[in-house]
Specification:
The chain has 386 residues and is α/β, with parallel strands linked by helices. 39% of the residues lie in helices and 10% in strands. It is globular.
């Protein structure tokens, strides 16, 4: 499928921190993808030690067998596997100064790792250079960073004789201040047909937009895949986002969802996104999906607390008017709703209950000590004059 149609991409990214799916859960994702007309699964889990932290370490035979079975299962369901490698934490970039294959041992190891993924059934490959230290200019000038990242991607593509997808280090407009020339230099050198992942103006968005000329031009040529972090919560693990998906599919031909790593929650969020993407009445569709998935009506009393993330450009906080009836709804959700989904949501709903009690000065001293982390205990008790 390396030469498959890449004009439209709608898929799932296993690319979060803190959670790692098992193979059974990944198959559940594939089955849901087929059901809702998704077509790409991006295997790039930050918690797979062989993917990122120890990327040089070869995958063991057992993993390779399971990955091969997974790829075969995905393909039989018309889902393409995009497999990633993330070597940027400690890759020897000095070896990429020259355009040849007589490079460092690092490049050889990277090629070998990519070849294994291809041999075991991955349809496409991705090079991820996101979330790596901003220290490139210790060895090179800032003007070289984008150029050398592009050269590495180009060399991989040439050596492996296939297109390579790329997640650049600067993957949102708000990060551009870290290296103002990075994207211009990257695209100056990068193969013109390379597909790149990008988050838009901010790392977390409710729509895709960019003010950077090179990104706008790439998007017009349909070479940008929107890496959507709207539902991701690895950066704020005390929170959970479950509201309607606000992206307009007509404006974004290529979107992939980076979610939570909680299998039941992710299956639900995928369905929400799929149903909302063509709908003008997203809230109504969202309600229907919740009902279909046996989320109790009581959840509607607290949904605002779980509706959406706080965005970089937000200036207001959620106004909270706590009706005593809300605690009755929370109690029912905590103690009477029993499903695989409820078990994943339990800690978030219980945490909300405690937060509301703190807000109303109703959480007793000993409960504060038992339920809150030490820094928050000190802050709360100081506010309350203790």
């Amino acid at each position: 499928m390396e030469n498959s149609n890449l004009n439209k991409i709608f898929g799932y990214i296993e690319g979060y921190y803190g959670n790692l799916l098992d193979w059974k859960s990944r198959k559940k994702i594939i089955q849901k993808m087929r059901e809702i007309d998704m077509n790409f699964y991006f295997y790039a889990p930050k918690e797979d030690i062989n993917h990122r932290l120890k990327w040089r370490k070869p995958y063991k035979k057992l993993w390779r067998n399971r990955f091969r079975t997974f790829c075969s299962f995905a393909n039989s369901n018309n889902i393409e596997i995009l497999a990633g490698i993330s070597p940027g934490l400690d890759f020897n970039f000095s070896s990429i100064k020259k355009n040849n294959f007589n490079l460092s041992n690092d490049f050889d190891k990277l090629i070998s790792k990519c070849q294994v993924l291809i041999d075991e059934g991955a349809n496409h490959l991705a090079l991820l250079l996101d979330d790596i230290p901003e220290n490139f200019n210790e060895d090179f000038s800032k003007n070289e960073e984008g150029l050398i990242h592009a050269k590495l991607c180009n060399l991989l593509s040439k050596k492996l004789k296939r297109h390579i997808f790329l997640v650049p280090r600067i993957y949102a407009d708000e990060m551009r201040k870290e290296n103002i020339t990075y994207l211009d230099n990257l695209f100056q050198e990068l193969n013109k047909n390379t597909q790149i992942f990008y988050c838009g103006k901010y790392i977390v968005n409710n729509k895709f937009e960019s003010s950077i000329k090179t990104i706008i031009e790439k998007k017009k040529k349909n070479k940008v895949i929107f890496w959507d972090n709207y539902y991701a919560n690895d950066y704020c693990p005390k929170r959970l986002f479950l509201g309607p998906w606000l992206i307009n599919d007509q404006e974004n031909k290529k979107v992939m969802l980076n979610l939570t790593g909680m299998i039941e929650t992710d299956l639900l969020l995928m369905e929400i996104a799929s149903k909302c993407k063509f709908s003008k009445n997203k809230f109504k569709i969202w309600e229907q999906v919740l009902k279909k998935n046996q989320v109790p009506e009581d959840f509607m009393a607290i949904y605002k607390f779980f509706e959406k993330p706080s965005l970089t450009n937000d200036k207001k906080i959620l106004k909270v008017n706590v009706d005593l009836k809300i605690f009755d709804k929370i109690e029912k959700l905590l103690w009477k709703w029993k499903t695989p989904l409820s078990r994943e949501w339990y800690p978030y709903i219980l945490s909300l209950k405690q937060d509301l009690q703190i807000l109303n000065d109703e959480l007793p001293f000993n409960r504060i000590l038992k339920t809150q982390t030490h820094p928050i205990v000190k802050k709360i008790l100081k506010i309350n004059g203790v």
